[in-house]
Amino acid sequence: MMVSVSADVMNSPARVGLVKDILEITEHFSKKHNLQMNYSGLPYIRVVNAENIKGEMYMFIILSLLITTFILYLFFRSFRIIGFCLLIVQVFDLFAIRLRHETESARNHDQTHKVHECDTNGGGYSKFHEDLT
Fold first, then answer.
1. Within 10 Å of residue 64's Cβ, how many Cβ atoms?
2. Cα 48–chain centre separation
3. Alpha-carbon torsion 38, 41, 47, 51, what sign?
4. What is the Cα–Cα distance from 122 to 18, expressed in whole angstroms?
5. Which segments of 34-121 does DSSP mark as H helices, in order?
6. How is the chain split into domains, by residue range?
7. Measuring CA to CA, how many Å separate 88 from each of 21, 70, 83?
8. pTM above the 0.85 mark?
9. What integer best gives the mean pLDDT of the chain?
10. pLDDT tens digit string along 32-78?
11. pLDDT by residue (tens digit) across 75-91?
12. Other Cβ atoms within 10 Å of 129 Cβ, number
């Protein structure tokens, strides 16, 4: 079975919900008919990798914070100085993340208005959904 999705949908932020919905539908179909589903294709791989990277990013941030704290403690031997240094770093990190989020939101907002046929309730793949149920 092959699913074809328009490029406008896959270039919008709605692609994550669309891929998750397709996975949910195909998992239900595979359990119902006792089949093993294999997934492939650049859109699928792109979404899955992006979601994995998002999840791992938080782990790396926490680990880097712990390692930085340990190194600062080796140098200064004072938790007050470590707290002050980490506070400065966190304030500027939050500022950079917020700035990046605002620029991405503005860009995604423009792209989302271009995609009218895609919604999370199945608008982008309703024929596919009807064929499987």
1. 10
2. 8
3. positive
4. 8
5. 42-76, 79-114
6. 7-132
7. 41, 17, 9
8. no
9. 79
10. 999 998 888 887 888 889 888 988 888 888 898 899 889 989 998 88
11. 988 889 898 988 998 89
12. 15
